[in-house]
Write the structure tokens for this entry.
Amino acid sequence: MAKAMKGGAVSESAPIYYEEMSKVAGKENDKQSITLIATDDAYNFGDYITLRSRTGHKPQVLTDRGAIISERTAEMMDAKVGDTITVTDSSGTERKVRVDGITEMHIGHFMFMTSGGYKHVFGEQYQSNAYMVRLKNHETSNVESRSAKLIKLDGAKGIVQNTTSKKQVATIVDLPDQIMEVLILAAELLAVVILYNLTNLNVSERIRELPTIKVLGGLGVLVYRRLKTVDMLGALKSVE
């Protein structure tokens, strides 16, 4: 496994400890999954995951005192820096963790620790069980292709790739644009229908009120067409 993490398509890799933890919280008071990532190389951890605050993008530094949690996790637990939170590990044991920092992350619940912080919380010696990997080619098709090859390696139980998270973010960001396009189209059609009906109503009233229009004959039709043209141009101008 370690040999596959070096050279070839892999730009760089680092061993980490990976575990899925949980917390019963939220508005529905349901079980939320929290991904724990612990490292024994806090200095180079930023090469893989950027830890920073939302306001001012202040770097969040990993220490042995506690953990850095994602913004969504902090909101879910109503936690602030310096608070102590309780989470449940994969064995069902509750663990108390000090919030050492809050990092800007938009999707999922995450908790980041150093190897020293892990030992303090779990009372066990740190031992890596996974790798963080950066590929030379970041194209989605290449990531998916390499993931399919890596999962076939002996000892590989699963692969977590950030392309899925990126797709979720893209979907969330693009959705308001699609909604706005539909609303704009509906507004344009509504404007055309309203102006068309108003024009018909206006001409009908004028015909009843001004008998002289009947005398104009073909000129009356010309006036009718011009009114429609002016109203249509006004509708197009109003939705620009």
